Amino acid sequence: MRFVDIIEKKRDGNELTTEEIQFFISEYTAEKIPDYQVSALLMAIYFQDMTDRERADLTMAMVNSGDKIDLSAIEGIKVDKHSTGGVGDTTTLVLGPLVAAVGVPVAKMSGRGLGHTGGTIDKLEALEGFHVELSVEDFIQQVNELKLAVIGQSGNLTPADKKLYALRDVTATVNSIPLIASSIMSKKIAAGADAIVLDVKTGEGAFMKTVEDARELAKAMVQIGNSVGRKTMAIISDMSQPLGYAIGNALEVKEAVETLQGKGPADLTELCLVLGSQMVVLGGKAGTLEEARSMLQEVIDNGKALEIFKLFVKAQGGDETSIDDLEKLPQASYKHHVKARKSGYISFIEADEIGTAAMLLGAGRATKESEIDLAVGILLNKKVGDRVQEGDVLATIFANNSDVAEVSDRILEFMEISDNKPTVPQLIEEIITA
Ligand code: URA
Ligand code: CA
Predict the structure, then answer these.
(1) Is the shortest distance between the CB of 184 and ligand 1 below 6 Å?
(2) Quick one: which of 422, 425, 397 has its CA closest to 409?
(3) Is 161 a catalytic residue?
(4) What is the pLDDT of residues 183-213, one digit of tens each?
(5) Is residue 69 part of a domain?
(6) Which residue of 66, 273, 343, 382 is 20 to 30 Å from 109, comparing CA positions?
């Protein structure tokens, strides 16, 4: 097989065979094909797209390019959740204990975040002592006992995706549905998921800015998952404004605890119940979404979900007493209220700009080497549609530096106030199943 023939075939809009796709991925992983040839193929895929079969083949070729996590020693159907990323998205912290409390095993492999705030692991590290360096045996044992464990990324998972993602980044080929869908799905499948629930975000704070683009990506991933034997469904949810009120690591842990106590923000709570219901049905613990939802509501109301969260934190070395006493979480030295300069309605809170403001405070990493400050962040006091009077607090800045003028200006600029009541964006745009 000659790689130039594969490039030519795709350039001309023809379908690649399974063998050609496997050859491409295995030879590229082994560094036997130069980046310039792969760049040409990526650009051909960008313009010519891939068929459903090609997308599934590409995904599985990437899964098979490295290690695969074997979770077969865990009883039950392992359902993983993936979010395409957003601002202040606290759902994983809530969903883990929530679905574990109704018996769905959550064996989560998580990473550190790059961007506005930390990833799930960074957030959990706001609980002093918490660590994710578990052996695979301890990880599996903990999931069997508590139904919930989080382990750091280990091993050589989907090396083909790592190489391709880096190359796409510098060849203007990131934004391609077959390439994004196969990249995300390969990582979930390699991490051992039997079933996958996808939360595809749309709006200013998301990768996919329009509902149409989000729908196309969601459909592509659902198609791939189901065609390779992983039950997969997706929801499309709004990320035009941040989710919940908290953006920042310790602040989001507090918000997650409050949500598990049944007194969290309405949007975060609703999204967790919708995603959680899907996970419970895919995990075989309920026959219908309605039944699943009432099971989840019950473990919030009776405190079992919060209890699982405490046991999980304790099992991984964290200070579980700070869950009852949230003042023990890392606290920022300065609190600054950002106040409305006029009266009206909040018409828009531009999620990515507010996320960037949180990153400027130190809540997230601009580069892999940046240090994260777990205490800092932004707590919104208003959401889109709320009425405000001049002088009302719009948001509180939690900082470890007294100079917050830049962050404060940014919040004022990107929390727009209008005279007319705006239409509030719908939280769940669509649910996509096979
Ligand atoms: N996230 C991924 O993991 N892969 C992509 O290609 C895009 C976003
Ligand atoms: Ca939040």
Answers:
(1) yes
(2) 397
(3) yes
(4) 999 999 999 999 999 999 999 878 888 999 9
(5) no
(6) 273
